[in-house]
Amino acid sequence: MTVLISGATGFIAQHIVNELLKQDYKVIGTVRTQEKADKLKKQFGNNPNLSLELVSDIAAPNAFDEVFKKHGSEVKVVLHTASPFFVTSTEYEKDLLIPAVNGTKSILESIKKYAADSVERVVVTSSFAAMLDLEKADDASVVFNEESWNPATWESCQVNGGAAYCGSKKLAEAAAWEFLRENRKAVKFELSTVNPVYVFGPQLFDEDVKDTLNTSCEFINALIHNKPEAKHMQEFRSNYIDVRDVSRAHLVAFQKKEAIGKRLLLTNGRFSYQELEDILNEDFPQLKGKILVGNPGSGKEAYKNMPTIDNTKTREILGYPFKSLKETVDDTAAQILRKDSKL
To answer: Which residues pair with 193 in a beta bridge?
Structure first.
């Protein structure tokens, strides 16, 4: 079976590609440049089951047309992971909203035009951000679950980078569900989404450990390297999931009929920055005296006024246990330390 995955060089996407190849799927990935394509092919040992196509700008009109013209008849599953993920932008529409929404619409339109009869399942990588109501982020009486939706509109989310990112995920996911409703008779595919919280865990390849990592892993990287921003995050708390659990969820999302039409909410519980500090100080003696200590043992105090996230339905569909905070932090940190011999 052939699976097409957009944004194949991404943090989560690389783990998905790895899982797909291990399960003997033929994988077609889209990447932005030939340089990225060459690097990824080499990293996967020039695996003959992996081929790569260039899509330089997912927001461009008909961005995926050429890929589906070429491969549409053979593709059975589409995993759409490509979307911008950063919160520092001030060009909210240009950097976040338009690429996220147009990229999602574009790949679905290309399926409709060139693979309506061949693509059977589509999985969109969304985010808990598409479920979160930012105004209730400090309300302990609130419960978010698989049916929750971020109430943001195109206009309302353009107040800061964080709101714009969250809004982009909501609007892109909503566009996917709306597309399927409007084109139910024109396409045969069924849709699922994967909605993770902050995603920790190692990069698939050690060589991809850079001075600055993807948004979630940078929490740990900043702490290990004692960057100034680590001190600013001392009071931070949120929810976590391991990248390897997220990648597995993408496969289950198209392999199980129980996942059809479902939003899979990926979280294994809460974390605080203090807990990250405690784990690193306890498990990596070489870091003692070099990184923040904070107030050891007080991490769970940060959970006050946090909403509850209930993903019981998702856990039942997936059917596998998630990795603990200690395991995901330890594995992330161990890889960073392997790469940085000075620490």
So the answer is: 124, 263
